[in-house]
């Protein structure tokens, strides 16, 4: 399973990463190099094996913990927005979102 | 009089408790050493905050309300968010970021009510977003190994291991996703432990691979690790849904227990051709020590050891690609100055904020999750992961603890593997299996290998058996002195 | 095709619609954080670290959201999964702080189910595929900023239940009826406040057309329909637009469209470039959700009686027609009102007529809910009791009701004050009848000759002579007796 430059473009777009041309080429070569090791994995027969939802599920059932429906978080807008790149009147500013 | 920096956490805690030294004195001592250091281990200091914490510890010690490790200086890997120090995760993406909350592990170890009372000297360097095995992926600077400054300290907790080895702090926190506590501990000749997945809260630990990340202590001795681990672990039911509801333990309770009859499993796959001779010799010698202590070596097999590399490097990047999507320049973190619209803002902020290895893993991760590839890669990897975990359960039927090398070689030279990411991945072969299974694992100093560089022995236990691992490590440290040696020859 | 199906065709095309409804659940706190969910707060004052996706934050599940999902599942007769999985839906948008939405993908908590309702007097059933839990996104505000948008994450993390139907709907009428019925269900069982203006209940309609018997056409999705009126308009426009496109030889492209209420038209949003690849995978921060059968049983036992069940009970216990029962169970308040009145006076059908008739008419005019009706259930029951025991006639009752509604008061006092008591004394009535018969011999002769219409000419004067207080039924009875006797 070899990736092409088109794949790199598509994935970079999905991941919202802008890659320079030589960066994209380097990444293509390195990822393809990586996928040669991955091929061995694809051949393993995993019929009837379920994925592990949590490592401990190997030995015991793990279920999602549920908390009571209580609104206890106080308003900490100022502290939470301390590291925001652009804020005005409490709103995070971004380039206009076009629908 | 022993220098403060030659004391263990246990010894310092005692000095502080018996008022032989004050927390403020201790903090000043280690702060001065740390700030003078040139290895690049630290990313940030805030002396005012450190001394404020020390004062708080002194007040608690005077009032008798202090925690078990009150006043003992330490440092946090810059993956743990702290309110009084910036947190960068070793990345430009979070340069200057100030978290409005502290990580649970930080609160449990610190001077806040209910904490162990340790004092934070500064934030430690690491591979960017914990992705790497040499600390060379830090966006700020590489870190040099105190034993040989032309070599890497290991990674991703390279800053932590270097700082402890150079005695800048007696102990540090690290995180281990694929070996990032065990491997740097091995490379720097110190002790480190990754607990069972779910023992230590991940709340406030910047996520790399959610199903693999775990926090753990790094110090010079097993006893120190046991003391810190006891403070770090415990259920965090309110904030971390993967945190296990198992009670906090005193992991130091069995340190001195006899090893008579302990069955140590030796996986044949860990002793193949790729293992450096010097590493092999040191590990074999350590195993001989265990036999002298009454343990029995049992040959075992972990047949899917090699498969753990592709399995890990599919699962971890997949989870990371999603975890790192929040870094978009909207609410926090780096925003590019050069954008024309929303999409270019996203793409350039992320391109500028992330280093190459991080981008590579995001790309790989997005690819293996994408439409048409999910079943063949991600799902397949998760299934093999269960098989690897089951292999360990099979092995633990005939042994109590598994032992072997931590890494195939000693620390390599800075720059040697920087252009070959796959070579880096292959070197993780011995630490990845326990990560995938979520089992507790340790590195204990076992001697020296090529070029006089430290070699660690890896110990892997069954779920919840940290006390047993620490016991085995401690007994080895009573029989050897590798953990007491320091770079430069003095002890 | 059946006649019914044929009758729904538009220009010879069959309309195929599937609905996805996002109902905001009425919990106090968010689905994965403890921030409050109240509407209308200052921007970002109800967005905590988890909602903002601050580094190191993690989700923790709200039990109240799960319980509400179970309630909905029971209300629609669905299967509640013993284990369901939360998955990440990955995409970038400023109102999505983590860059992924926590939702459910392959294994949702509620599976199957159905919703039945009336369109006119025909019963229709729409099958549900599933309902799953997920988190809401924040909001983008555009008005006050030039070239920029302001992001408010207060809404981010509000629990949603996404309810998905099979493409069983065949017209805009059916669509609106379905949406109204679902709206009734979620508000009736109390899991959602149903406030469409505030965005508590949002519908997306997947619309396509095809010639009868052909494969399914390409569908376009009309998003964010938050009023029943707009829903109808939007679907009607979209259907006509699609048919026009096809007739002109253009293929329909899959697209997401928005309805513009000002123009009455649907308009495609930016076309989906290579139909978004969401890279779903199970969220490693959240172990599987387990819903034990005993929890389901407990919720079932504590659940309020569902509208369908109650309607069936009205039919069985009160002998009401299905139509009446369905109309009366349009809201909990109305059903309660009906039942209280019916129990008090024992005249279920009469009560039903009055509630569906006079009461509803006046409520609709004033746009008020039945909780605000000036005439309470017991008052209505008292008045109906007076009809049933012949104290007043139906027409007199209208006057009594009017007085009760506009001025209030006591039923008997009003009857007395307005002199509306029916004459029930058969003796006095017989006297009047004798007098009228004597005064109208021609009508008597015609009736006896076989012309039954001649009766009307006698009833009128009798009613007049009794000043309208004669009981009409009694008049007819006695009159016939005298004429035939």
What does this molecule look like?
The complex is a heterotrimer of chains A (99), B (491) and C (485). In chain A, strand 2 and strand 3 (91-95) form a beta hairpin. Helix content of chain A is 36%, strand content 9%. Chain A has a two-stranded antiparallel sheet. With 99 residues, chain A is of the alpha+beta class. The two termini of chain A are 37 Å apart. The longest helix of chain A has 22 residues, at 21-42. Chain A has a domain at 1-66: Glu-tRNAGln amidotransferase C subunit, N-terminal domain (Histone, subunit A), CATH 1.10.20. In chain B, 36% of the residues lie in helices and 12% in strands. With 491 residues, chain B is α/β, with parallel strands linked by helices. Chain B starts with 8 loop residues before the first helix and ends in a 12-residue tail after the last helix. Chain B is built from 15 helices and eleven strands. Chain B is globular, with a radius of gyration of 21 Å. Chain B has helices at residues 9-17, 23-36, 47-63, 104-109, 158-165, 182-188, 222-232, 277-292, 308-323, 342-353, 356-369, 375-395, 421-426, 432-437, 466-479; strands at residues 42-44, 73-77, 119-124, 171-176, 191-194, 214-219, 263-267, 296-300, 401-405, 441-448, 454-461. Chain B has an eight-stranded mixed β-sheet with strand order 4-6-5-10-11-9-7-8, sandwiched between helices. Chain B has a three-stranded mixed β-sheet with strand order 1-3-2. Chain B has a domain at 4-260: Amidase signature (AS) enzymes. In chain B, helix 2 runs antiparallel to helix 3 and helix 9 (308-323) crosses helix 11 (356-369). Chain C has 485 residues and is of the alpha+beta class. In chain C, the strands form four sheets. In chain C, strands 1, 3, 7, 8, 9, 12, 13, 14, 15 and 16 form a ten-stranded mixed β-sheet that branches. In chain C, strands 6-5-17 form a three-stranded antiparallel β-sheet, with no helix packed on it. A two-stranded antiparallel sheet of chain C has the order 4-18. In chain C, strand 15 and strand 16 (265-268) form a beta hairpin. In chain C, helix 8 (332-345) packs antiparallel against helix 9 (348-366), helix 8 (332-345) packs parallel to helix 10 (377-388) and helix 13 packs across helix 15 (456-465). The longest helix of chain C has 20 residues, at 228-247. The mean pLDDT of chain C is 92. The interface between B and C is large, with 43 and 29 residues.
């Amino acid at each position: 399973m070899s990736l092409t430059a088109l794949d790199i473009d598509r994935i970079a777009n999905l991941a919202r990463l802008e890659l320079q041309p030589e960066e994209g080429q380097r990444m293509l070569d390195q990822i393809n190099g990586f996928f040669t090791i991955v091929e061995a994995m694809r051949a393993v027969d995993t019929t009837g094996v379920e994925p592990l939802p949590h490592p401990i599920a190997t030995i015991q059932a793990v279920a999602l913990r549920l908390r009571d429906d209580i609104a206890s978080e106080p308003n900490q807008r100022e502290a939470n927005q301390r590291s925001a790149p652009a804020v005005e009147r409490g709103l995070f500013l971004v380039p206009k979102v076009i629908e | 009089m022993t220098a403060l920096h030659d004391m263990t956490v246990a010894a310092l805690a005692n000095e502080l408790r018996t008022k032989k030294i004050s927390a403020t004195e201790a903090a000043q001592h280690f702060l001065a050493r740390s700030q003078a250091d040139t290895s690049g281990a630290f990313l940030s200091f805030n002396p005012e905050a450190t001394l404020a914490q020390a004062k708080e510890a002194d007040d608690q010690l005077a009032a008798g309300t202090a925690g078990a490790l009150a006043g003992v200086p330490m440092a946090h890997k810059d993956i743990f968010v702290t309110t009084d120090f910036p947190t960068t995760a070793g990345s430009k993406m979070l340069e200057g970021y100030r978290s409005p909350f502290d990580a649970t592990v930080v609160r449990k170890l610190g001077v806040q009510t209910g904490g162990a009372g340790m004092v934070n000297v500064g934030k430690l360097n690491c591979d960017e977003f914990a992705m790497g095995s040499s600390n060379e992926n830090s966006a700020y600077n590489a870190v040099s190994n105190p034993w040989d400054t032309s070599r890497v300290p290991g990674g991703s907790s390279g800053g932590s291991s270097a700082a402890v080895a150079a005695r800048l702090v007696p102990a540090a926190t690290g995180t281990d996703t694929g070996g990032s506590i065990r491997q740097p501990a091995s490379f720097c000749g110190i002790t480190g432990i990754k607990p069972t997945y779910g023992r230590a809260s991940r709340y406030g630990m910047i996520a790399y691979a959610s199903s693999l990340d775990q926090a753990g202590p790094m110090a010079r001795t097993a006893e120190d690790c046991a003391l810190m681990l006891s403070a770090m672990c415990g259920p965090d039911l309110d904030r971390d849904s993967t945190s296990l509801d198992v009670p906090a333990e005193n992991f130091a309770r069995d340190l001195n227990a006899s090893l008579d009859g302990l069955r140590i499993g030796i996986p044949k796959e860990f002793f193949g051709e790729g293992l450096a001779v010097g590493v092999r010799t040191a590990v074999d010698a350590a195993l001989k020590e265990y036999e002298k202590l009454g343990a029995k070596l049992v040959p075992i097999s972990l047949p899917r050891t090699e498969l753990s590399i592709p399995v890990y490097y599919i699962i971890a990047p997949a989870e990371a690609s999603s975890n790192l999507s929040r870094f978009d320049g909207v609410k926090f973190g780096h925003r590019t100055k050069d954008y024309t619209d929303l999409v270019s803002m996203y793409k350039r902020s992320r391109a500028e904020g992330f280093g190459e290895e991080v981008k590579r893993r995001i790309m790989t991760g997005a690819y293996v999750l994408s439409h048409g590839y999910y079943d063949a890669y991600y799902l397949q990897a998760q299934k093999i992961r269960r098989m690897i975990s089951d292999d360990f359960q099979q092995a633990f039927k005939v042994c109590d603890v598994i032992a072997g090398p931590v890494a195939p070689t000693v620390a390599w030279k800075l720059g040697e593997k920087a252009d070959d990411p796959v070579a880096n991945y292959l070197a993780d072969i011995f630490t990845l299996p326990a990560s995938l299974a979520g089992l507790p694992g340790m590195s204990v100093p076992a001697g020296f290998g090529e070029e006089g560089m430290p070699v660690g022995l890896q110990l892997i236990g069954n779920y919840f058996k940290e006390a047993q691992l620490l016991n085995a490590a401690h007994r080895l440290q009573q029989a050897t002195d590798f953990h007491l040696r320091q770079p430069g020859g003095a002890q | 095709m059946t006649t019914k199906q044929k009758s729904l065709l538009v220009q010879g095309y069959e309309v195929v619609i599937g609905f996805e409804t996002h109902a905001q659940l009425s919990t106090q706190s968010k689905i994965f954080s403890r921030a409050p969910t109240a509407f209308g707060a200052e921007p970002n004052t109800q967005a905590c670290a988890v909602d903002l996706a601050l580094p190191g934050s993690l989700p923790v599940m709200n039990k109240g959201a799960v319980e509400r999902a179970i309630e909905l599942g029971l209300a629609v007769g669905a299967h509640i999964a013993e284990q369901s999985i939360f998955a990440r839906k990955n995409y970038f948008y400023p109102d999505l702080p983590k860059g992924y939405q926590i939702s459910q993908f392959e294994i949702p908590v509620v599976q199957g189910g159905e919703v039945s309702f009336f369109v006119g007097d025909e019963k229709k059933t729409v099958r549900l595929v599933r309902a799953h839990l997920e988190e809401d996104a924040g909001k983008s505000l555009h008005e006050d900023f030039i070239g920029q948008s302001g992001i408010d994450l207060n809404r981010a993390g509000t629990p949603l239940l996404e309810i998905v139907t099979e493409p069983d709907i065949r017209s805009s009428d059916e669509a609106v009826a379905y949406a109204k019925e679902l709206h009734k269900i979620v508000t009736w069982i109390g899991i959602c406040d149903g406030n469409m203006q505030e965005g508590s209940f949002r519908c997306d309609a997947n619309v396509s057309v095809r010639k009868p018997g052909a494969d399914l056409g390409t569908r376009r999705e009309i998003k964010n329909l938050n009023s029943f009126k707009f829903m109808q308009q939007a679907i009607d426009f979209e259907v006509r637009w699609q048919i026009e496109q096809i007739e002109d030889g253009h293929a329909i492209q899959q697209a997401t469209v928005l309805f513009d209420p000002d123009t009455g038209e649907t308009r495609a949003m930016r076309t989906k470039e290579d139909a978004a690849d969401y890279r779903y995978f199970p969220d490693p921060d959240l172990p599987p959700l387990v819903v034990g059968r005993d929890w389901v049983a407990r919720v079932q036992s504590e659940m309020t009686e569902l509208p369908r069940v109650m309607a069936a009970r009205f039919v069985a216990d009160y002998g009401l027609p299905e139509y009446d029962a369905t109309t009366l169970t349009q809201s909990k308040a109305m059903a309660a009102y009906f039942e209280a009145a019916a129990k008090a006076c024992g005249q279920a059908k009469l009560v039903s007529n009055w509630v569906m008739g006079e009461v509803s008419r006046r409520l609709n005019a004033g746009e008020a809910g039945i909780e605000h009706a000036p005439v309470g259930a017991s008052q209505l029951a008292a008045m109906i009791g007076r009809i049933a025991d012949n104290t007043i006639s139906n027409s007199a009752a209208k006057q009594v009701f009017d007085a009760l509604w506009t001025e209030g008061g006591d039923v008997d006092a009003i009857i007395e004050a307005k002199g509306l008591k029916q004459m029930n004394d058969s003796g006095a009535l017989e006297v009047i009848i004798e007098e009228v018969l004597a005064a109208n011999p021609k009508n008597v002769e015609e009736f006896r000759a076989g012309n039954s219409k001649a009766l009307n000419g006698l009833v009128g004067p009798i009613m007049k002579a009794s000043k309208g207080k004669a009981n009409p039924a009694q008049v007819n009875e006695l009159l016939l007796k005298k004429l035939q006797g």
